[in-house]
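Sequence design from tokenized structure. All designs in this work follow the same two-part layout: the structure record, then the generated sequence. An example of the structure record is given first.
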């Protein structure tokens, strides 16, 4: 049996301090300074545990580059722009975006690139991928990025931020916890006492959930940082992730290892632990601090509106038959609504300073689900 130092540490913590909230367990699985999943490895690609949209096709990053250009023009083409990426993987998306932006020398010259990445293995990969890029800096947190007009890209970033899970009981909502069963294995449980007045702030849809229902929520701090930054310093943020348009009950806490779903309690630190993103909650938090919200819309709709079909056709025209087939398959994967496609499972939300009234691929009129 393989050594599981993080599992042993989590069990020791539970024995000494009592059942552990799901958010704390998730935080340790991903960010433990020695054994955390995101601190110690390159999780991407065929050899890793999952594949992200930029790894599927160059078109994804190129179109985000062109989207950045359209926002820059709407901002009045400032002579200085910070292009910030949160959780930039191997640097693939940024490399593709910058290649598309080279056709606009005034913007390309204006760019200062900021990569927010805590994983030293991925930082090395990013540095190698972007070795020809000038004006590039790495940071542990967006708090460390200097002020200034910014475009912020966050692809599959919010899904790994720790969630609180609440379980509906007859007498209220109880925090879901991790405890140790009689056989010494981890299992889910619930705090003995309900969280006082928790249902007061819940959306009506969730308030009506039956006994046994699970509701997930994330603190608003991270999205409020992005929203406050673009509100005060000019610019926009684009959040792309898998999740739901409206706040609702449901257990989406999951683990992926080697491209396959696995038990999130089985091997802490050795699998990617995530949960779906509540886009209505993100939008509400951004609006609460006075930023403008655009969308959310599905990834398929967004990519089609910003021209992925035209880009695919242009690439296919110059490609060999084999490469042309790969491009068609990638297009389908990014935009399709079926089980194997990312088109409807992934959503896209724009957040901007209030004067940017319409943003490419998103518009206020297309806001799904309203505020209800």
């Amino acid at each position: 049996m393989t050594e599981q130092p993080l599992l042993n540490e989590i069990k020791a913590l539970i024995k000494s301090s009592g059942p552990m909230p799901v958010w704390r367990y998730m935080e340790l699985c991903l960010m433990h300074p020695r054994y955390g999943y995101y601190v110690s490895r390159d999780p991407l690609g065929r050899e890793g545990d999952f594949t992200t949209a930029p790894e599927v096709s160059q078109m994804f990053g190129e179109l985000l580059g062109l989207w950045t250009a359209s926002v820059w023009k709407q901002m009045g083409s400032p002579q200085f722009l910070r292009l910030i990426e949160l959780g930039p993987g191997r640097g693939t998306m940024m490399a593709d975006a910058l290649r598309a932006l080279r056709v606009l020398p005034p913007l390309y010259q204006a760019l200062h690139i900021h990569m927010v990445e805590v994983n030293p293995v991925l930082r090395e990969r990013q540095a190698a991928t972007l070795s020809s890029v000038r004006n590039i800096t790495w940071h542990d947190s967006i708090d460390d990025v200097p002020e200034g007009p910014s475009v912020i890209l966050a692809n599959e970033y919010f899904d790994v931020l720790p969630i609180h899970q609440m379980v509906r009981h007859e007498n209220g909502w109880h925090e879901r916890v991790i405890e140790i069963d009689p056989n010494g294995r981890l299992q889910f449980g619930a705090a003995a006492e309900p969280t006082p007045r928790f249902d007061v702030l819940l959306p009506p849809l969730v308030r009506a959930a039956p006994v046994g229902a699970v509701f997930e929520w994330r603190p608003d701090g991270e999205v409020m940082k992005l929203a406050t930054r673009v509100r005060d310093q000019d610019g926009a943020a684009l959040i792309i992730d898998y999740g739901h348009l409206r706040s609702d009950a449901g257990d989406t806490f999951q683990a992926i290892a080697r491209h396959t779903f696995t038990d999130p309690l089985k091997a802490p630190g050795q699998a990617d632990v995530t949960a779906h993103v509540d886009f209505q909650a993100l939008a509400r938090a951004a609006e609460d601090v006075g930023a403008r919200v655009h969308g959310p819309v599905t990834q398929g709709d967004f990519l089609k509106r910003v021209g992925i079909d035209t880009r695919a056709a242009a690439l296919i025209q110059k490609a060999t038959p084999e490469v042309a087939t790969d491009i068609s398959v990638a297009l389908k994967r990014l935009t399709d609504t079926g089980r194997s496609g990312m088109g409807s499972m992934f959503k896209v939300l724009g957040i901007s300073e209030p004067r940017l009234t319409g943003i490419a691929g998103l518009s206020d009129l297309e806001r799904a689900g309203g505020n209800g």
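The longest strand covers residues 235-244. We note this feature because it recurs in several other targets discussed in the main text.
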